[in-house]
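Batch job 17 of 40 flagged for manual review because the log was empty.
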Amino acid sequence: MAARLRWLIRGPEPVPDERQWQRLGEGLWLGDPPADALVAWMKQVGAPAGWSTLEAALRAGEGAGRDLALPQPVRDYVRALCAPPPWLDPLRAARGARVLQATGLHGMMVLRDAGLMAGYQASAINQPLLLTGALHRGAQRRVAETTAWWLACTADGGMAPGAPGFLSTARVRVMHALVRAQLMRSPDWRADDWGLPVNQVDMQATYLAFSVVQLIALRTTGICLTRQQADDVMHLWRHIGWLMGVDEAWLCDDERTGRLWLYQNLLSQAPPDEGSVALARALADEPLQRHYPRWAALRGRVNRARHLSLVRWFVGADGMRRLGLPVALPWYPVMLLGPLALGSLVCQAVPPLARWWRARARARQEAYLRILMGEATAPHLRGMGGAR
């Protein structure tokens, strides 16, 4: 994984020096103090009461951080979320969201196959998924939930306090802390090998998968992006990562730095194992389980072939073998390379066309979520807003 990324990094070999290796090692033992303290309190009062109090506080917004009637861990958590960091530029973040809206269904496909599937090669990050039983609950459910969260985060105004993306991210952060607490008590968790569950190094890798990896995947499949557009996407994900509990020291604001940090992070990751194969095979079959309105069997097989073709483009033949996936040729990205490049260049040259295209592309993203989750998703989509 790192060898392919090295081609995109200018300058001398960016292998971590002794200080950087030390920092990566220490990051394996860093969690998320505000969320961890909140989870410790929730354990004392019980999950139902804890979640109810937290939900009310999150919806109350910044004022809940000063409400002395609330428990201190709840106030601290809400205060940490609602006070925007001094570096946040809402206009840049909004532009970044619109860049992602305009990538349409293709943008979501490459995020799935380059960010999620290819990322299964880093076996230590997989362990919380495997040990909490996520594999048995099904890849289709995980993809649907992640897609709903991504759409909420990339909607216009989606990350404002109280907005759907903000609230979903706040809940996911608590879930990560719950997993961290649960697995640290588990006899199956090998802390000497993996550090803390959902630690800062692994959270950084995940945040960079949603930002840097998707940008690389878009570019290498034909989408033309300016440096400003890419850096706006990075700024949006810096904010989302910050809300998710990634420490500021592990976040960056530009694509060039993100590539370097991702490269160094990947060098520290454990290689693929049998868990990587199990997760990859389950995700490969996920298109067969979607809620297609018609021609379900045929569309499932076609989409499975399209995704395998994209995975081959991103990880190569060796990566396919490491993930236990069947032989596939990269016919799909090769077929789209020219049309995607031409379309993105034309949209950049004609702003009215770009606005029309973004609205159309966002509608396709929302339609994709309905296929993943079924028509019951429609009310949720109306609440999230879109590319308007």
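Reviewer: the log was empty due to a logging misconfiguration, but the result itself is present. Residues 2-30+84-384 form one domain. Unflagging and moving on to job 18.
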